Amino acid sequence: MTDLGIKQIEENNWLELLSVWLNLVHQGIRTRNLSDISLSLQTSLLFLSQISSEETFIDLLHQGWCAVLQTIAQQNPQIVVN
Q1: pLDDT tens-digit series, residues 14-64
Q2: Domain coordinates in residue numbering, the chain
Q3: 81 falls in which pLDDT band (50, 70, 90)?
Q4: Cα-trace Rg, the chain
Q5: Is-contact 64 19, C-beta < 8 A?
Q6: How far from each other are the two terminal CA atoms of the chain, in whole angstroms?
Q7: Concatenated DSSP letters for 18-81?
Q8: Would the N or C end of the chain have less CB density within 10 A of its end CB?
């Protein structure tokens, strides 16, 4: 599901939906219902270079990334160390 979502965002240039996708990823990580999403996360990180800091959805992106990274760090502290 997350792979399909990020692919649709990429193909249609729907960068404003990236924060919604991050919320879904965050919930999936919290409930441990996601398989390997590292490639999707890498792809979404690449999108950040295409987004201006003036975009109206930039705060939502910031909040989404913070939530995702905090949850990953809580579940696997070794990732933070590496």
Answers
A1: 999 999 999 999 998 888 877 777 888 889 999 989 999 999 999 999 999
A2: 2-81
A3: low
A4: 13
A5: yes
A6: 28
A7: HHHHHHHHHHHHHTT-----HHHHHHHHHHGGGS-TTSTTHHHHHHHHHHHHHHHHHH-HHHHH
A8: C
CB 21 within 8 A of CB 63: no
- Residue 82 pLDDT more than 60? no
- In this structure, are residues 9 and 17 in contact, taking their beta carbons and an 8 Å threshold? yes
How far apart are alpha carbons 21 and 17 in whole angstroms?
Answer: 6
Dihedral over alpha carbons 13, 17, 18, 22 (to 10 degrees)? -150
